[in-house]
Task: structure prediction
Amino acid sequence: MIRIDSIWLATEPMDMRAGTETALARVISVFGAAKPHCAYLFANRRATRMKVLVHDGFGIWLAARRLNQGKFHWPSIHHGAEIELDTEQLQALVLGLPWQRAGSGGMITLL
Result:
């Protein structure tokens, strides 16, 4: 439905009361710009809620996800740090699974 070429995860928590404009301002402050066909992921401090902002080339989409049990496997907080994910890692993250082991990040190259 929406083309996403790059997926970026912010390590600093975001207030989940943020609406579209606040989330967009946060994307610009953390990533420098909201680029077309990119998704930007943020979590709250406890990593039980996540928001995803996507720029589809024409407008902005904002989606939210909440886990009723457990928490998202979010990396530790590093001021100004961001991490690029692939599609498989995003799917694992959204389900609450350890995404670091999915996709190209979990590739075995040495025996």
About this structure: The mean pLDDT is 88.
